[in-house]
């Protein structure tokens, strides 16, 4: 497998200053925009293995969320903090004069994609929910939820190669964690501003009040956009039964369950991921 540097050859990294936020964005290609949203604690390199292939037919744009990576670190507001992530995406679209876009969200990114689809459907074309987080659906594993909390906080409070690797292996327990992606995550989590913002983010993510911001089946049934659920057989926290329950209520949705992958299918099996995503976007 190529290095991240080789995977991103020919892409461009830009920083956009919108009304409230500074957003780092890795871009590839032209045509219809495809926004790629990473998971909690992540960064744009989540999609490094997909950028050039997706960019052959779309304007692929992988961002760092606020509080993450090299994007800005605004103070948290009281109440539903997820709305600031949604607002970041909408502000970026406005800044770039993008009226409507397709969105793929992985984990936390899928939570934002669901919010966009439910509350801002006029700005969306199609959505891809990749091993989504943020659902109140039967079948969620509380044990996996707590193991993620421990691995995340330990690695943030004491960022070392070993603890970062352990956190990445929660995402990819079947293998796939490279020394390079560990080094990238370590470099970002060792920055004081990113580390402090992510600790505050995880404090909120794992607080009891966060449950009220999650989407139940009744809310997911409001999604009327073309939707692809990109799932895996070994996804921690929410297995295939959760994906099937979501697909049952999202009218006309398509479900793809990938074997031999866990919580980072776009990295673990990039060719299969890209083939399925492109077929969905182009039909």
Structure description:
It is a single chain. Helix content is 42%, strand content 18%. The protein has 283 residues and is an alpha/beta fold. The protein is globular.
Computed structural class: alpha/beta
- For this structure, the quaternary state is single chain
The description of the largest β-sheet is: 8 strands, mixed
Helix count? Answer: 12
The gyration radius over C-alpha positions equals 17 Å
Helical content stands at 40-55%
Second CATH tier, the architecture: 3-Layer(aba) Sandwich
Strand order of the largest sheet: 1-2-4-3-5-6-9-10
Report the CATH superfamily: Alpha/Beta hydrolase fold, catalytic domain
Q: How many structural domains can be distinguished in the coordinates?
A: 1
Broad shape: globular
Task: Name the average pLDDT.
Answer: 96
In whole angstroms, the N-to-C terminal distance is 29 Å
- The name of the CATH topology is Rossmann fold
Order of helices and strands: HEEEHEHEHEEHHHHEHEHEHH
How many strand units? 10
Sequence stretches where pLDDT stays below 50 over 5 or more residues: none
Strand content: 15-25%
Which CATH top level class fits? Alpha Beta
Short characterization:
The chain is an alpha/beta fold and 283 residues long.
Please write out the topology.
Blueprint: H1 4-7, E1 12-17, E2 22-28, E3 33-37, H2 51-55, E4 59-63, H3 82-95, E5 101-106, H4 108-119, E6 124-130, E7 135-136, H5 142-157, H6 161-171, H7 179-189, H8 192-205, E8 215-216, H9 217-220, E9 227-232, H10 240-249, E10 254-258, H11 265-268, H12 270-282
Parallel strand pairs: 3-4, 3-5, 5-6, 6-9, 7-8, 9-10
Antiparallel strand pairs: 1-2, 2-4
Helix pairs in contact: 3-4, 5-6, 5-8, 6-7
């Amino acid at each position: 497998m190529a290095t991240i540097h080789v995977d991103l050859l020919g892409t461009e990294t830009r920083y956009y200053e919108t009304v409230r936020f500074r957003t780092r964005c890795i871009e590839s290609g032209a045509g219809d925009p495809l926004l790629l949203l990473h998971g909690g604690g992540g960064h744009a390199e989540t999609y490094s293995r997909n950028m050039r292939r997706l960019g052959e037919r779309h304007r692929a744009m992988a961002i760092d969320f606020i509080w993450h990576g090299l994007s800005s670190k605004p103070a948290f507001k009281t109440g539903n903090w997820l709305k600031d992530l949604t607002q970041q995406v909408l502000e970026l679209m406005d800044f770039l004069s993008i009226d409507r876009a397709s969105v793929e969200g992985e984990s936390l990114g899928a939570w934002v994609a669901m919010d966009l689809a439910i509350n801002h459907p006029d700005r969306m074309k199609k959505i891809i929910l990749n091993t989504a987080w943020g659902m109140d659906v039967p079948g969620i594993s509380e044990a996996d939820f707590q193991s993620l909390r421990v691995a995340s906080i330990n690695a943030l409070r004491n960022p070392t190669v070993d603890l970062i690797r352990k956190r990445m292996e929660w995402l990819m327990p079947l293998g796939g964690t490279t020394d390079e992606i560990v080094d990238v995550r370590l470099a970002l989590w060792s920055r004081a501003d990113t580390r402090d913002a992510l600790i505050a983010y995880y404090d909120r993510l794992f607080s009891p009040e966060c449950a009220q911001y999650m989407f139940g089946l009744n809310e997911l049934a409001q999604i009327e956009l073309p939707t692809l659920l990109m799932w895996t057989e070994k996804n921690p926290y929410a297995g295939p039964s959760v994906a099937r329950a979501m697909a049952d209520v999202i009218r006309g949705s398509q479900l793809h369950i990938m074997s031999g992958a866990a919580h980072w299918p776009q990295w673990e099996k990039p060719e299969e991921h890209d083939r399925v995503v492109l077929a969905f976007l182009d039909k």
